[in-house]
Specification:
Elements: H1 3-8, E1 12-14, E2 28-30, H2 31-34, H3 49-70
Parallel strand pairs: 1-2
Amino acid sequence: LTNELAAKADLILVMETWMKEGLPPEKTWGLGEFVGEVGDVEDPFGGDIREYADCARKLTRLLDKLVSKLD
């Protein structure tokens, strides 16, 4: 993500809180936070297949809530 893209964006959604660092705070949210949930979507990198599947389910659920919110 470049500074130019961040400046043009209306909304920036991240998976983990630390990813907000250096981004415009007025338009940067954690995905869960934005849809009214608590907690990060932890990166499953290095984990087993179960961790990847859990992450995919969580992302699917949060993205469904996001679509409803933006609709």
